[in-house]
Amino acid sequence: MIESLRQNRTLRSRTLMGLLAVFIASVLLNRTVDLDHQIETAPALLNEPDLFMTQASISQINEEGHLTSKISADRFTHYPLTDVTTLELPRVALYTPNLTGPWTISSTKGRLLGVSVYRKQSVELWSTVRAEKSNPDGSTTTFITDALNVYPSENVAESDSPVTIFTGNTQTQAAKLRANFDQDTFLFNSNASQRVVTTIRLKP
What we know:
Helix content is about 20%, strand content about 45%. By secondary structure, the chain is an alpha+beta fold.
């Protein structure tokens, strides 16, 4: 009789220990799953868009009150963590004080990078980039490329992609481009696969 009671107590003790182990394991498992879920979802939540604008534009004015640039897009989407604004069908107009007509630059995609201690404010454009300006004599200067970085505060644009520029009866192809719109100057660069080539079409 006494031996039977001892066996029952031992069995109950082992059963309780087993149940306690299962309970602790389930708590730890749930905590691990929750932590994994937090680790996976936290970055996405941190960089959720906080601003949307459609059919909007942003204008910059200098100290004299003159319009220097205008950035338009069908849609602006701002991400606060990186301070980056994505642009759908962006259009950039750069106004120069000494030249007639603004430079207008358009593309399919783009993004606006805010100014910080690590970078200047810039507009990155890609996919069917086209820049155009009307000249006093009625002609048009145009260049096309796959990607272009525009710095509105400096009226400067740079491209590391092949570029073609058309002006009057002249066509120039290059591997890279740096354009200073205030001075109306273009610096063309070549590389191993693309030389700077200028073609002049003579009028009959």
